[in-house]
Amino acid sequence: MNLREAEEKDFEIIYMMGYDAWGDGLSKPDYLLTCKSSIKYANGKWYVLENDDKVLSSSLLIHNLNHLNCGTGLEIRGIGSISTPIHLRRKGYGSNLIEKTMSYINRDIPIDIWFLYSDIGADFYNKLKFEALPNNFQKRTSSLLMAYCQPNTWDINTNAPQIEIPNYF
């Protein structure tokens, strides 16, 4: 499996990976139009995992969240829109993509804090060393805010050093 940045030709496939979860009853053409016009999708950088035959098996979106560091100098990123086609789920592609993407980005810029909002519960992300933030830092009732932090960088329980806790991204 190969990690790479998404290309323009990939976006329809990427968007359709999440149709069952985020389609909200829209027709497929309407859903694709919504995705193509999404500011959230345009503001991040997409990564994909593909096999040797160039078939995409998983995708995710990385957001630069340094505007939340409150002058601490911490490097903060958000991982969003993690998706795998239905027929390829539960084969480890999503986990593999998350690990490879984090490792790839950390080579150029060591990231202090990685955030994500889980719509599938904590267990999947706990295996990747993400921890749920305490209830007083949760911003949504429908998604669980989780973080992966470099050791001795940021205290997930006390928010020290002080940063802004991200809203859904």
Structure report:
- With 169 residues, the protein is an alpha+beta fold.
- The chain has one domain: Gcn5-related N-acetyltransferase (GNAT) (Aminopeptidase, 3-Layer(aba) Sandwich), CATH 3.40.630.
- It contains six helices and seven strands, in the order E-H-H-H-H-E-E-E-H-E-H-E-E.
- It has helices at 11-17, 19-22, 28-36, 39-42, 93-108, 123-126; strands at residues 2-5, 45-50, 56-64, 76-83, 113-118, 131-132, 144-149.
- The chain has a seven-stranded mixed β-sheet, sandwiched between helices.
- Helix 1 crosses helix 3.
- The protein is globular.
- The model has no long low-confidence stretch (mean pLDDT 95).
Derived from helix and strand composition plus strand pairing, the structural class reads: alpha+beta
- The CATH topology annotation reads as Aminopeptidase
**Average pLDDT, to the nearest integer?**
95
The span between the termini is 27 Å
Protein name: GNAT family N-acetyltransferase
Organism: Clostridium diolis
